[in-house]
Specification:
Strand content of chain A: under 5%
GO molecular function, one term (chains A, B): protein dimerization activity
Low-confidence stretches of chain A: none
Shape of chain A: globular
CATH topology of chain A: Arc Repressor Mutant, subunit A
Pfam family, one (chains A, B): Fe_dep_repress
Function (chains A, B): In the presence of manganese, represses expression of mntH and mntS. Up-regulates expression of mntP.
Mean pLDDT of chain A: 96
Structural class of chain A: mainly alpha
Largest interface: A-B, 48 and 49 residues
Main location (chains A, B): cytoplasm
Oligomer: homodimer
Subunit structure (chains A, B): Homodimer.
Number of strands of chain A: 2
Number of helices of chain A: 6
Largest sheet of chain A: 2 strands, antiparallel
CATH class of chain A: Mainly Alpha
CATH superfamily of chain A: Winged helix-like DNA-binding domain superfamily/Winged helix DNA-binding domain
Number of domains of chain A: 1
Radius of gyration of chain A: 17 Å
Order of helices and strands of chain A: HHHEEHHH
DNA sequence: AATATATTGTAGCCTGTGCTACATTCTAGG
DNA sequence: CCTAGAATGTAGCACAGGCTACAATATATT
């Protein structure tokens, strides 16, 4: 049984737009991690951790700046704006919740970390809330 | 605590390559659905259901053909090769499993369908197996 | 201080996936 | 049969996100 045409189109549309934001989220979270663990967020480090060339990282950082999530000056490290920091916090919380849920349903920990990286960008607020409830219930 | 640099790069790499295959999977699954429900898979229908222009759909269909997943002749509908059909079957099974798992942990059904569209492309075989075990255990 | 190395930034290319506009072909109604 | 409208296909554009190669700057070593 095929779903309604418009519904289906909307589903795919949502998945596409989620994907469009995924890159920004990954960068912001990583930068926040780097800044948080006592160091700076330097383009080369960011590039290495994301597994891309430094040129690619710099272009993406430029996009972060365009979108008001980060700042940087020539030959200085990258910093987050308040908006960027907020986004990072939300993304990190979501990431944890996704990993925890995967583990709770029996996914091996290492695998949960791997899969969560791709999954997290597509989990809605409603689903996150459900995850939290499920984990809470299970904990008792 | 930051993860190991190489591990982290590998995670992102995996997520990127999963994303690269996602579009093909969506098309193949949809085409199989259309063919399966008694009709043809026409480019215009495919485009409408995916929420993209017909030109975009046709270009993606060309890619499916390049990759040996589909066939079509000028002004005829699209068909799947055996490889395409196999992929569609795997994708559909995975989709169902993801939706069922989301529902099982308390995500509202409609939301589960929405989120699954994006999530499914990032769920590894190991995680799928865990989902199946979890659902089986819960069913009893 | 001078130079070698590492880091940062720029330029230009490719591919993928959107789009609109236009051309072609099919198909149905008159 | 022939013409109007739908469907299909093509061309060309934009943007994102990869890459390599090169240029510029900063840092470290001698």
């Amino acid at each position: 049984m095929l779903p309604d045409e418009a519904d289906q189109a909307q589903r795919f549309e949502k998945a596409r737009s989620a994907q469009a934001g995924a890159l920004l989220e990954d960068y912001v979270e990583l930068i926040d991690d780097l800044l948080g663990s006592g160091g700076e967020a330097r383009p080369t480090d960011i590039a290495r951790r994301l597994g891309v060339s430094h040129a690619t990282a710099i272009k993406s950082i430029a996009r972060l700046k365009r979108e008001g999530l980060a700042t940087s000056k020539l030959y200085r490290g990258v910093f987050l704006t308040p908006e960027g920091h907020d986004l990072a916090a939300r993304v990190r919380a979501r990431h944890r919740l996704v990993v925890d849920l995967l583990i709770a349903v029996g996914v091996p920990e290492r695998c949960a970390e791997l899969d969560a990286e791709g999954i997290e960008h597509h989990v809605s607020e409603a689903a996150l809330a459900a995850f939290a409830r499920f984990l809470e219930a299970k904990r008792k």
